[in-house]
Structure formats: C-alpha cells, structure tokens
Amino acid sequence: MATTTTKKAVTATHRIPNKGRLGTAATLAFTFDGQTYAGVQGDTLASALLANGVHLVGRSFKYHRPRGFLSAGPEEPNALVGIHRDAARKTPNVRATVQELYDGLTAVSQNRWPSLAYDVGAVNNIGSPMFSAGFYYKTFMWPKGAWAKVYEPRIREAAGLGVAPDLADPDTYAQRFAHCDVLIVGAGPSGLAAAIAAADSGQRVILCDEQPDIGGALRYETGASIEGQDGWTWAQAAGASLLSHDNVRVLTRTTAFGYYAQNMVGLVERVTEHLAHPDLTTPRERLWQVRAKKVILATGAIERHMVFADNDRPGIMLASAARSYLNHYGVAVGRNVGVFTANDSAYPAAIDLKRAGVNIAAIVDIRDNPSSALVEEARALGIEINQGRTVVGTDGRLRVSSMTVQAKSGGPERKVAIDALLMSSGWTPSVHLFSQSRGKVAFDEPTQRFLPGTYAQDCISVGACNGADSLQATVDEGFAAGEKAVRSTSASKPKVDKGETWGGGMLGAAPGSGPDQIVKAFVDFQNDVTAKDIRQAVREGMRSIEHVKRFTTNGMATDQGKTSNLHGLAIAAEVLDKPIPAVGLTTFRAPYTPVTFGAIVNHAKGDLFDPTRRTPMHGWEEQQGAVFEDVGQWKRAWCYPRKGEDMHAAVNRECKTVRTSAGLFDASTLGKIEVVGPDAAKFMELLYTNPWAKLEDGRCRYGIMLREDGFIYDDGVVGRLSADRFHVTTTTGGAPRVMHHMEDYLQTEFPDLDVWLTSITEQWAVIAVQGPKSRDILRSLVDNIDISDAAMPHMSVREGTICGGVPTRLFRMSFTGERGFEVNVPADYGRAVWEAIWEEGKKYDACAYGTEAMHVLRAEKGYIIVGQDTDGTVTPGDAGLDWAIGKKKTDFVGIRGLTRPDLVAPGRRQLVGLKTKDPKTVLEEGAQVVVDPKQPVPTKMIGFVTSSYWSENCNSSIAMGLVEGGFSRIGETLYVPMPDSVIEVEVCKPLFFDEKGERLHG
Amino acid sequence: MVEAVAITAKRRGALDHRSEAINGVSLQPAKPARRVSLRVRSDGLAPLSLALGLDLPSKPKTSVTANSRSALWLGPDEWLVIDDGEGDPIADLAGVSVLHSAVDVSHRNAAIIVSGEKAADVINAGCPQDLGLQAFPVGACSRTVLGKIEIVLLRTAPDTFRVECWRSFADYAFSYLSDAARGV
C-alpha cells in the first residue's frame, strides 16, 4: 500500500547547475509513493526522480527484484509506475521515462507489498530455481484439481504489474483521419532533413515524433553541430521553420504505433498527458489514421544493455540514457559511475559526466585493444580503462554499490565501488514499423544486425533505423528520401559541421555470464528472462526462436523486447551453434508502444457506442410511458403500461382492446423498398415465391422470399402502386440484408432487367390502426380515399392525403387478424398524424399497443415471424405456407433448392400449434419437445417451442413450435420436459382465434 | 407526389432544436428539402437534365447546383437530387417518359450543415475520406461513412459541408459531429 503521508520535500541533490537545457524553468512539486519531491518544467518523471537521487522505482514481474531506470525513453522495461490524477484516473504501467512532469503529479510504484523497499514477493527471487523458463507449463501440472482452485487464481493475482482503474474513464478521446503525400516518422536529424527537403514542394507533409520536442538523439549528442549551431539548437530552429509551412503538420508527443495495409499508419497523440490541469473538454489523446502516399521511416536505433550477472540493479542503465539525463535534463545519475561496454558509444557518456564533475570509477571494455579518438579522449581525461575485461557481477540491494571486474579469460576478481553503472553493447536499428509494413528484414553479416531488406509498401527507411552509423549519413539519407518523395526540392541540405558516430558492439551474454555460470544475467528485464532461461529453453528442445520466445516469454512484455530480442536470439543461436539468421527473428507487431483503449475507442463510447435509431413517434411514446425494447439499433415501444399495471397486465389490456375496439401501433421500423421500372413485376416474380404479374394496381400480397437453398429468408406485404411500381415491406431486422440480397441478384443474376431498388424505410412513418373500429377512426381523417370495405377491401393500397393534405400511402392490411390499416406518411409528419389518429381513437377507447401485444396478436392468428418461428432451415412447406408458392412459376430464387431430397423427405420439422393441457401453463420459448419423457437421457428431441404467450383473448396459453412430422401429429399428445416438471401439450393447428378469418374483412 | 401548400399537420424534423457552435465550428440542421433518388442509364441523362433544369453530372464524386437545386453523382446510374427552395423535382420528373426511376426520399434523409475553419477536421473525425481542397473541392460529393453510419457528403464552400444521412441516424450524426468538434 502506498503511504499517503506527505513528507518534507527533498532537494534535488543530483541536478548539476548550468547543465542541461531546463535552465531556470519553473519548479514543480510531485509525489512518488507519498514522498514529495521537486522537479522542473521540462522534466520527465524519471529525470525528476533521478535529480533527487531516486533510482529504485519498481519491482520486477517474476522475482520482485528491485529495479531502476534502464533508459530515458519509450523502450523502458523497468520503470513502470501508476499515475493517479484522481479516483477515476489511475493509469497503470506508465513508463516514468516518457511521462512528462507536471505540478502535482502523483506517481506510485507497482508490484510490491508492503512497500517498494521491503517487498514480501521478493521471496520469489530466493525460490527462483522454481521459476525457471517454462515454469508455467510444468510447475502447475500437479495435482490436477489444484489448477482451478489454487494455481490459476494465484497466478492471475500475481500476473500483470499495475492495477487497472475500477471506475469509468471520465476522459474524452478524439480521432482524425488524415491524408498526406509524405508521412515522416521520427523527428531526429534524419527525419528533420527529410521534412526540410519535402516541405518546400507544397505537398502535404506530416512529421511526427513520440517525444515532446523534435531533435531525436540530438537531445544528448553534444558532439553534433549543424549549420554552425549545436545540433539541438539547429533542430529547434528547423522545427520552427517547418511550422511556418501551411502544408506541413508537425505532431509531437505522437507515436506511430502501427503500420497497416496500403500505407495506413496509426498514430496516437498524447494531447493532455503532460498538463497539470487538463481542460476536461480537450481530448486526452487523439488517434490519427494517416493514409500516406509515401512513408519515410526515421525511427532511429535503440541502445542495448550488456548481459551479465545482476545487471538489473537500480543504478545500472544504458549509457545513452545517462547522457540524456545529463545533457538535456542536467541530472547526474550518480557521483561515482562505472561503465561497462562493448563499443565506443559508452565513452561519450563517461566523458560528458567526467567533464560535468562526476567521478568515473572505471570503464570496463570487453574489447582487447579499443582505439579511437573517444578512447583517447577518455584516457586523456584520466579515466581508468580496463580493456579486455568484463563485469562478472554487481552488489547493492536497492541500488548498485559495486561492480566485480575480471579478465575475460577468468582469474582474480576486483571489486570497484560505484553508485551507477552505464552500459552499452551497441545499437539495434528500430525496424519495428518497417517490419509491420510486411517488409522483410535482412541480416547484415558484417555489422551483425537486422536491417530493412525487401520493402512491401511505398516507404523508405532512413538514418539509424536503416543502419546509418554517423550523423552525416543520417542527414544525407533523410534529405535524399525527402527530396525523392516530392521529386524535387529547392531546399538546401543541412550542412553537418561535425557529428558523432555509433556502431559496433556485441550480441548475447558478456564473457563471465556464459553457459558455465549459474547467474542471473538479465536479457529481458520486464519479463525477468535471463540468459540461463534461454539456454535452458534450447536444451529442452525449442529450436525456433518463436518457440524460445513463448517458452521463456522473452520479448513478450509490453516493451516487446526492444532491448532484449537481439540478445535472446544471439544466445539461442550460440547454444544451437547456428548463425543468427538461421534461427530467425520474431515478428514485430503493432502497437509499437502500448496504446490506451480510450484512444482506440475514441468517440465510440456512451451514446456514440452505436447509433440508436428512434422513430418519428418516439417522443410521443416516451410521454405515454412506453417501455422500449431494442430491435437491432431501433428502440421500439414494447408496451404502454398504465398506472398500476405491470407489463403483463398492460400487454393483456392492449391485446383485448385491439380485438374489441382498435389499437395504434408504430410500425415505422419495418423495412420498405420501392421497386420501380417496367420490369418490376418480373423482378418480383424472381425474388419472391409468389406470383406478381397479375396482381392488380392498388392490391397487396403477402410475399415470401427464399434463399438459393430453399429456406425462408424474409417475408412481408407488398403493395402494387402501379404497373411499374411496388412498395415492398420487409421485417425490421431484415431491412438492410433484404435490400442487399435483392440488389445482389439484380446486379449479378438479372442485370438485363429494367428495374431499380430504393430504400424508403425512413421516408415513411407507419401507423398501424388495427381493430374493428379502425375504419371508423380513420374515416374522418382521410381526405380523399374511400376506405369502405367495398372500395378498399382487405389487402389493398391507395395513395391520397390525410389530415388536411399530408400525402399518404394507405394500406388495408392486418398482422392481427382484425380489420386493419397501415397509414404511411412522410416521416416528418409521422408524429402529427399519429396524434390526430390518437385523438380520434380516444373516442372509441382505442389504445396504443407495443411490440409484445403485436407478437401475441399475430400468434393468436398463427402468423409467423421470420427469425423467431423460422431459423434458416425452414421451408415454406415446413411453415405451412405452401399456398404462397406460385404453382405455375418456373423460376424464382430457391425454386431448385426446394426440390432437394432432404427438403422433400418425410419427417421434417413442421410448424404446429401447441396447447398445454393446463391452459394456465405458458411454455418457455426454446423448450424442447419429446415423445416419451421417460426415455433415459439422452432423450430424443423431436422439436422445440418457437413462440409462446399468454393470450388474454383466448384465456389460455398459446404456443407454436417446429415438430418432426408435425402436420400429421395434430391431436397427438407430446411433452415438454422442464427442469422441475414435464408439461403435457396437445399438437394443434397454429390458429387460436377467429379460425374462419372473418374479422379481417370487418 | 405533390405536397399541398396548406398542410395543417405540424412538420417535425429529426434535428429540430439542435444546433451547436464549438471551437469555431457550427452545426446546424439543414432546412427541409425535397429529395429524389434518381436512377437512370446514361442514354437518359439529357431529357432528365432538361426536366430538372441542370446538367446531371457524370463525373464521379461531383455535383451540379443550379439555384436551390443540386444533383449529386452517387454512382454510375444514381443521383441524389436535393432542392431546398420552392421547386419540386418529383413533379418536374413526372412527365418524362425516358426509362428511369425517381423515388421521393425527401423525408428519408436529414441533413446537417457543418461550417467553420475546422469543418473538414470535424468531419474527418469519423470520415476516412481525403477532405483536402484538392482532393475534395467545393462541389465534391461522396456517399461515405461517418463513424458507424453511412452519409452523403457534399462540400458547398471551402469551409462548409452538407452531411446527409437517413433520418433515424441524424441524432447519432449530430452527436458525433458535436463530440468531434469538441476534440479538434
């Protein structure tokens, strides 16, 4: 538990006056594990803690070993902390090396109990032989029963580092799609040079960088001078100049995390993470989806650590990180610093620190005869250089206190007291995005590294990520790529006066940490993988690096092995006695660094998670106290409970009222398609089983649509408005797919037909007025349509006006079995017309009814609902709808499917009615139907209940079901076994009310 | 169909009472308009253009506007005709005998006028199209997406767009654009 008591602020003991670039910036107060510290504007949390002499910031994942800062950037595997803004804003696993400091920042350490300094979990370190590679797969195998009860819960508890926030995220996030001619990833010298070359063209350029400032490695490379200025100053001026171009967008604090197909690159911009008091209306992060004509990858290189015994103690870090802390933030990472290296890159760190007044205890260089200007410079400064030697161990519980030096060939050991240890084994080009673009990396034998090889997309890698080893080369490559991307440039190439170089180094375990030594030489800090684990994986039979990776979890933490992959690979290759490329490289996957769910979800949360569709009458329904149900994206009134009514009572009343007087029903969501053209009838003949050619204008027909396989796909009433115009209705849920189905057949199978389809679902609000009084209600409202039974019989449609001039398509049709109308009016008039009908209906004690009453009423009449009484395996014959198939028709979609042997075989499941012996018992939809409930399990099931309701009109339960050979079982008794009883049912025709169907006609 | 002038029933738009101005971007419901979904093959373009009083565009993603009427190219045989003035394109097309399909979709769609310097950025929060003035100049139109819905987008001025969507999606579209405007 983090202590919340605030102690006295500690002064920044390790900030060196006149070093770094933060100067006299404002002082910021922040806390880490309850202790208050001071930092300055421009610090990261890491640099501010280091300025206060704090190295211990976390505990490792598996062994709970004390850990400090390895890096000064996004590759950080160790220094993961929680940042707590308030109760709801607790972000776990934030890399302290990336988090910018703001006043009042609250950070807490993770993976420790009770405190960072005294962590009970550290017992895992002592018991570490138990936790060797693959321990997950072995240790928890026995006893079997313990897995679910003991091991899994315990592992889940121990797994992961930070704690996920438990309140809803109050922040907002944004998204932006952007297009550009050139996207440049990385604003170091190479990316900047590319941007300078491309900017002048007037073409659209986006330059992004994950850091708050542009400049890249110039942040610490004090040896750089460009255009007569030191590198960093030049970079800032170049950035300012780019901003003056309207065609250039510079995005800092923006990580390109994923490279997708056709040059789509995902960026995440951290908009407010660095602010003390973010404006709540400003998005916290913005996801950019950039489609670029050309991508220039200038992603640089990441320094690798040395792999040696106990290389993970707080205070042991990358040489370039120490330089960043010194040269940019003005922070010395120690007072007595050791260096362990396999190349030249650690020397400038030692030199910079020495010049800043920090003692360099010793440089240990595994090379036998290092010779370069840098080595000579270090020597001239009086720094002790131990060449041909290695570090075989370190001491210090919560902070490194010494390093043990030995000749590579063994021999006497010497302990050197230190309080920080800088290391470098060379640089790994950042080919992550290149690899994500599906480019193939190639192993460069002389330099022992993977470089971009074969490109799969229109992109180019420049600078250190492409293997350039000097400032001059990175600027050259960047500028040339920028110029090429825009074809020609009038800008002149930045002149490099002097610059640093990098290169060389080693892969794998350092001498002294080889196969013979039982030591913890960490390869992957975040997942606690040691060189020994990788060797063991190979010994246990893993040959592919993909298997080694999964067995050891090397590179599988959130840092994705930015510092560890190459070391792991080299160690495996050594044990396998194979060259590195023969062992292979694991795949790089997005995201490059972790991306919040918030950024990915962005606008799509809350009300915007998914569209909510409301009908034009929705507001009225709400006012009437309707209870709504979701039907796809639609909100539909389920029923209208009155005061004192529960929903059952409401539905019973609504069902009764419709059959005694009338009811109003909002049917606007029904799919509607206007089929227009001289071949409209011909098209309808092909898409529906029914005949249409002879349907008269102004008449309607119930149509069934099949799929090619003969099964029912949709149904609905179709009205013929004129010879060349049909008004087709579909089910609510089927509207989009039926439209697509029809359009698909029209375009691919019947392109010669002169007919077009237009969705008119939302053009028309639909008010169903159903019941014996429906005509009386509408009579006074309809302007110019004769709605008498003689002039407008059941299944007819008329065009005219209603309510004083509102255009209407008035259907005489019924889904209740009563005399009924469906009033279609243009959607904006839906509510007004509904209200007018309602006022009229009140005179007849009509009610509004919802979807549940509609379901009951139609079931009383045995009308099917596609998708409820059918499941995609039901033919018209199975549903008792053979009459809807045009007997003389020679073609329609599904006609051949209907003749398949299985579809005409006896014993098919057929739709029948089911009457419970006890009329009060209501069956459960989905319940199975059996012949013999006493048959031992597994009982043979011959069907199931598809629709079941209480019918107030019948004063009994009613149900329909699909039952094998159902039509021939009429009168038979079957059984519906339930968990607590067996319900006896009698098979009947699926028709429970007004069997003669006289009410339809009034 | 012809809508009588003296309709007494109250007309309620999908976006009545909604209006926002955030970060210099204005979101307003468009005024009621008559709309026709027009389908015709290329040989029928001339007589229909004559009847409509504008040349139906045949270049993808372009529109033609004459007075209060615009015709938006949506596909090789598909146009959306919008008239927010007194004209009635359905009536104008009624007498044309050339093979075509004209369907009244006046109420099917609702429209939002998005204007302001950052109008394109706001729409690009949910629409993946390139809305740079070169790629999508004034008069350009497209049937595309906004977040999770389909829209028809028309640029009416360098900093003004008309976003058309189906009526029941208008609420989502408006809220999406509001949320986007807060985030630009």
TrEMBL record, chain A:
Ranges of residues in domain SoxA A3: 520-600
Alphabetized SUPFAM superfamilies for the sequence: Aminomethyltransferase beta-barrel domain (SSF101790), FAD/NAD(P)-binding domain (SSF51905), Folate-binding domain (SSF103025)
Which parts of the sequence belong to the GCVT N-terminal domain? 617-889
Q: Where is the Aminomethyltransferase C-terminal domain?
A: 909-994
Q: Name one GO biological process term.
A: tetrahydrofolate metabolic process
Q: Which InterPro entries match?
A: 2Fe-2S-bd_N, BFD-like_2Fe2S-bd_dom_sf, FAD/NAD-bd_sf, GcvT/YgfZ/DmdA, GcvT/YgfZ_C, GcvT_C, GCVT_N, Sarcosine_oxidase_asu
**Entry GO MF terms:** sarcosine oxidase activity
Mind listing the UniProt keywords for this protein, alphabetically? Oxidoreductase
Q: Where are the transmembrane segments?
A: none
- Pfam short name (any one): FAD_oxidored
Keyword Oxidoreductase in the entry? The reply is: yes
- Record has Oxidoreductase as a keyword: yes
Which family is annotated?
Belongs to the GcvT family.
| PANTHER family (UniProt xref) | AMINOMETHYLTRANSFERASE (PTHR43757), AMINOMETHYLTRANSFERASE, MITOCHONDRIAL (PTHR43757:SF2)
| Protein's name according to its UniProt entry | Sarcosine oxidase subunit alpha
Instruction: Give the species.
Output: Tianweitania populi
Record lineage: Bacteria, Pseudomonadati, Pseudomonadota, Alphaproteobacteria, Hyphomicrobiales
TrEMBL record, chain B:
GO process terms (BP) = sarcosine catabolic process
One Pfam family this sequence matches: SoxG
Report which superkingdom the organism of origin falls in: Bacteria
**Protein's name according to its UniProt entry:** Sarcosine oxidase subunit gamma
Q: Which residues form a coiled coil?
A: none
A molecular function (GO) held by this record is: sarcosine oxidase activity
